Amino acid sequence: MASSASLQSFLPPSAHAATSSSRLRPSRARPVQCAAVSAPSSSSSSASPSASAVPSERLEPRVEQREGGYWVLKEKYRTSLNPQEKVKLGKEPMALFTEGGINDLAKLPMEQIDADKLTKEDVDVRLKWLGLFHRRKQQYGRFMMRLKLPNGVTTSEQTRYLASVIDKYGEEGCADVTTRQNWQIRGVTLPDVPEILDGLRSVGLTSLQSGMDNVRNPVGSPLAGIDPLEIVDTRPYTNLLSSYITNNSEGNLAITNLPRKWNVCVIGTHDLYEHPHINDLAYMPAEKDGKFGFNLLVGGFISPKRWGEALPLDAWVPGDDIIPVCKAVLEAFRDLGTRGNRQKTRMMWLIDELGMEAFRSEIEKRMPNGVLERAAPEDLIDKKWERRDYLGVHPQKQEGLSFVGLHVPVGRLQAADMFELARLADEYGSGELRLTVEQNIVLPNVKNEKVDALLAEPLLHKFSAHPSLLMKGLVACTGNQFCGQAIIETKARALQVTRDVEARVSVPKAVRMHWTGCPNSCAQVQVADIGFMGCLTKNSSGKIVEAADIFVGGRIGSDSHLTGVYKKAVPCEDLVPIVADLLVERFGAVPREREEDEE
């Protein structure tokens, strides 16, 4: 259980003086006129059954704790399971970490691993509990490693270490900034994994519980603690969540057997940089009876066949005690979630089945005192707020300092880029870097007198502080270069299509374009102004080619909206004129004058 003291331990000494009455206060630069954002009880909906309407047998927990602390599915619920659940039953994935199984596995050659069903499942599935994803189709014998990086905050030391890991793999090694403020490194080979895990620990990092049916990286404001207009510094909360989720990087066995992945964020600004509407649990700043805390949204998700925005839980928790409700929500999902059709196992499906009030009741049962307060009448988010651009140079709340937002094209970095970023963070800032959900990087704590010299650094020709209006909103998933599920190539194509479109039209403001290689939508095309989801189709010559379903009209912020398909199965070779026309028709773009022979 989180205490106010544990929150204090995450705060720098200068912040302790800002707390009183054993609680964390929101930091505000000026009063804000906020629109009323109500959080009504979902039980008012006729479609939502009351808690008493759900049969008692449906509320029986489907998992139980076994020897060693592991949670497993009860025998009577082991019918019609999806393949991933069967793999979990065959062997406990976390044993690769808690019992040192990774050390033995790393010594085996791939030929021997593939010859045995259990070890092959270890490599292809169970290692995801350690953040390791075998790229069997694209890079046989090599792995992507996903880190845990709460709030996207990292250090120059950590960045150098990750750069040193991928540097040894040459062309096979690279890194990506993810859409959850996180690092993914590529090219890792199995024999190196034990040493890499030790190296991560030595610099204060972990990859534990970052894949499969686990809680993903806790997201917070990329400007936490430095934004003059922030509502609250999210870093103490995301750090506390991450410490709970991984049991301080030792493994939290109580929540490593969820029915599906689970996302959490803490909102720190009116800008909603954290995208609360697509998280399973979102903490929304709200005051109740004069005390700072959070209203809660639950159930936001994106999946191949369905996507839905998070809904009010009609619940409020004090700011100095946020962990119990996270624990209760996770345990309700773990205990009651279904484990059949993989496309219907995200938490929103459970909420739909039980109804919001019954789901809330199950959470309340799992609270320490069996009590979950109803929501504050309003949260602190200004719904009329215009989202700010964090790219470029901006003054911090700390006098004499600025933060500089750098655009990382489609989030891809090489080892040399990371070494150089670490140097810049040390030379111009405080040795800290911030990752964003748009796959960019923020360098905080730059002395104002050093800004011009930073902007003149050669690396900023590649990672610009002032990218073009179309480039700055560009997001792309891994694509089929490395991902076995991706249908099309995304990163290089996203850059080329954008360059070609820029040659045709000029836009008056930034347009967010997201590319995802398959229906899993890791790049979140449903929230984009224009989104591209990979598929295959026949071109005009009847040839099967890479294509994209086009999504138009997604929104982020208080007026969030998850959009649907605008045009299906457009061959990638035909996208440029279609996107250019869309920008003219929907986003105020103006055609550029072109020489006739350019055609």
UniProtKB/TrEMBL annotation:
What is the catalytic activity of this protein? Answer: 6 oxidized [2Fe-2S]-[ferredoxin] + NH4(+) + 2 H2O = nitrite + 6 reduced [2Fe-2S]-[ferredoxin] + 8 H(+)
Q: Cross-referenced InterPro entries, in alphabetical order?
A: NIR_SIR_4Fe-4S, NiRdtase/SiRdtase_haem-b_fer, Nit/Sulf_reduc_fer-like_dom_sf, NO2/SO3_Rdtase_4Fe4S_dom, NO2/SO3_Rdtase_4Fe4S_sf, NO2/SO3_Rdtase_FeS/sirohaem_BS
Q: Which Gene3D superfamilies match?
A: 3.90.480.20, Sulfite Reductase Hemoprotein, domain 1 (3.30.413.10)
* GO molecular function terms attached to this record: 4 iron, 4 sulfur cluster binding; ferredoxin-nitrite reductase activity; heme binding; metal ion binding; oxidoreductase activity
**Keyword tRNA-binding (UniProt):** no
Indicate the segments forming the Nitrite/Sulfite reductase ferredoxin-like domain, all copies.
Answer: 134-202, 394-458
Per the UniProt record, which EC number(s) apply here? 1.7.7.1
Tell me which residues make up the Nitrite/sulphite reductase 4Fe-4S domain.
212-368, 474-581
Q: Which intervals carry biased composition (Low complexity)?
A: 35-56
BP terms from Gene Ontology: nitrate assimilation; response to nitrate
Superkingdom field: Eukaryota
Q: Which UniProt keywords apply?
A: 4Fe-4S, Heme, Iron, Iron-sulfur, Metal-binding, Nitrate assimilation, Oxidoreductase
Q: Per the record, where are the segments of Polar residues compositional bias?
A: 1-11
Query: Required co-factor?
Result: [4Fe-4S] cluster; siroheme
PANTHER family on file = FERREDOXIN--NITRITE REDUCTASE, CHLOROPLASTIC (PTHR32439)
Which family is this protein grouped under? Belongs to the nitrite and sulfite reductase 4Fe-4S domain family.
Alphabetical list of NCBIfam families matching this protein: PRK09566.1
Name the record gives this protein: Ferredoxin--nitrite reductase, chloroplastic
Q: Which organism is it from?
A: Hordeum vulgare subsp. vulgare (Domesticated barley)
